[in-house]
């Protein structure tokens, strides 16, 4: 054999070995990667959960996840669904990407795109409502391999009994005996079983517990009142979470899967419910603590220590970088507003926030009556920490002032004055104008 031929043969063998070890290394990496299941209930404040102090609502599965994982006391959504869904999926504040109610701008990069690019199988089930207008988008374009969704092109209004659901481009045939949340939970359980040998990402924006408030399959009350049914629906949402956790156990994935639970905004305004010695009114769509204070529970045995209770601030823009941190995915090459809270989930200090920024353009015009500015006097901007909240119009409130009845004047409190300066600088650090909201009525 000539020298040149021998040299070429050696090069080919080296290339073969390089590829072989590369594939083996990728296999080991993929096998060790954590799955993520992000569950987001609809219209449910933190005070609707036993682990956050409720004695009225029963949430045994979520309480157990909180006890055996980490519970964040200061997580904040947006006041209404579209704003929260866009923010949680993109890691970007609404001042950068809010278009209109019911729209996720088609140019945005979502956590679905991000993890799919990293080699994850992806699924979404639940409520979509992001395809409206000329700029809206659909699930496949957001990185989801498979979907089963309500409020999606081709579906109708029914979401609970005899639901109208689109599954991978086909409208499901359902009857009056079919309950939407069961179909969606079953769908995701099947996905988990089919993808147990490879890393996956599941996003479950639940139908529960949004109005209307019909009885659930487990309801035993005969009164049929909204609050009674809402309490049953909260328990049923908890049951759906428990079924997904059970499916992870059955498939040997419990210690390989990070389960995250939160909600998209506060409780429906038509509901008044007991909490401690109070009767609390739902504040959905208002830019108040009652409209934005969300539960956040993270659980993964062996990866997330038991019994962590964190007072660190978490904003919905933090979800995407946290998922990137968990999965090893590369962050999108765009301006992000979030930061990972995965270190805190592991019992580390991490990089806690000093403040969060919120931009909100409400569909519910009354919400902007006090602090609306800018386009149609409807834009609401504020910054807050765990204790105080400053609107861009200069009004400061204590966060514990749930209905924001008592503005705080300068000079009353040293701590409040210092926080006012911090929050004012936070507001000034963000863009003044919304990048994608037009001047027309939205």
Structure description:
By secondary structure, this protein is α/β, with parallel strands linked by helices. The protein folds into 2 domains: 32-353, Alkaline Phosphatase, subunit A (3-Layer(aba) Sandwich), CATH 3.40.720.10; 357-428, no CATH class. Helices cover 30% and strands 19% of the residues. It contains 11 helices and 16 strands. The chain has helices at residues 3-32, 60-67, 81-90, 94-97, 111-117, 180-194, 226-250, 289-292, 319-327, 342-345, 414-428; strands at residues 35-41, 70-76, 121-127, 146-150, 166-167, 170-171, 200-205, 257-263, 272-275, 278-281, 293-299, 308-315, 356-360, 380-384, 388-391, 396-398. The chain has a 10-stranded mixed β-sheet, with helices on both faces. Strand 15 and strand 16 (396-398) form a beta hairpin. Helix 6 runs parallel beside helix 7 (226-250). It is globular. Residues 15-29 have low confidence and may be disordered.
Which structural traits does this protein have?
single chain; 442 residues; alpha/beta; Alkaline Phosphatase, subunit A; ten-stranded mixed sheet; four-stranded antiparallel sheet; globular
List the SSEs and their pairings.
Layout: H1 3-32, E1 35-41, H2 60-67, E2 70-76, H3 81-90, H4 94-97, H5 111-117, E3 121-127, E4 146-150, E5 166-167, E6 170-171, H6 180-194, E7 200-205, H7 226-250, E8 257-263, E9 272-275, E10 278-281, H8 289-292, E11 293-299, E12 308-315, H9 319-327, H10 342-345, E13 356-360, E14 380-384, E15 388-391, E16 396-398, H11 414-428
Helix pairs in contact: 6-7
